[in-house]
Amino acid sequence: MREDDERCNRARAWFEALRDRICAAFEAIEDEYDPQAPPARFQRKAWERTGGGGGVMSLMYGRVFEKVGVNVSTVHGSFAPEFAKAIPGAAENPQFWASGISLVAHMTNPHVPPAHMNTRHIVTTKRWFGGGADLNSIIPVAEDTAAFHGALQDACDPFDPQRYDRYKAWADEYFFIPHRGEPRGEGGIFYDYLEEDFERDFAFTKSVGEAFLDVYPRIVRRRMHTPWTEEDRRIQQIKRGRYVEFNLVYDRGTQFGLKTGGNPEAVLMSLPPSAAWP
Predict the structure, then answer these.
(1) Catalytic (active site) residue 116
(2) Active-site residue, selected from the candidate residues 76, 116, 121, 149
(3) Cβ neighbours of residue 116 under 8 Å, at least 6 residues apart?
(4) Is the dihedral of CA 116, 122, 126, 127 positive or negative?
(5) pLDDT 10s per residue in the chain (278 long)?
(6) Which domains does the chain have, with CATH numbers?
(7) Is the pTM of this model over 0.90?
């Protein structure tokens, strides 16, 4: 759990490298959408955590991506006693180290599906990986949903033929809004407490990131020129409201970030630039 732990450094380096590749891919989409317009670019802002560590926010406001954040953080310190009880391996020793990448994309065109992806590595007296990805279409298209799930299944199958089905079911349960009685979107995969073998678990976590980087830009390019109406936009705003409700009430990452002294700006990066409630 020390900062010079070789495995921790490898995980941190991967999350930062994946961030850089995703940001470059999204900026390329902005350039392709309108080559004559001023280029949209990510703006980075570093922050430090009082208890130890910090992170870098990367935010872009573009023509295709109305608001997209790709954040990385690496933090360490001690959990508060009441929070430590809920974290594996922290009840007996509250010291922790955590690193991860978190991405949320809110799109201008209602026909381009918003998406989320995050993966993380956490160390207490135990050590595990977790994360997931899901698609949150405003106007679902079967082709996009199938492509997204197909890429995630391809990421899972080499590790265990049953893994995709398990993690998809977990995502269907997790990405659900109980007080609305409805799913957040078309789902994806969700996994946590993966601690079977570091090298294998790290390889799987990298596979999830690679799958997202491959499939999501393809979906965006497929839909970004689709005409849309004001009614489409109205529906988009209402669905964004549902997204806000989930993230503020149920999301584990939001709770972890706020309860461990994370930067509120970075933690709440996931919220859309605008939303509505009927």
Answers:
(1) yes
(2) 116
(3) 103, 104, 105, 133, 134, 136, 270
(4) positive
(5) 454 589 999 999 999 999 999 999 999 999 999 999 999 999 999 999 988 999 999 999 999 999 999 999 999 999 888 888 889 999 989 999 999 999 999 999 999 999 999 999 999 999 999 999 999 999 999 999 999 999 999 999 999 999 999 999 999 999 999 999 999 999 999 999 999 999 999 999 999 999 999 999 999 999 999 999 999 999 999 999 999 999 999 998 898 888 888 889 998 999 999 999 98
(6) 6-270 (3.40.1500.10)
(7) yes
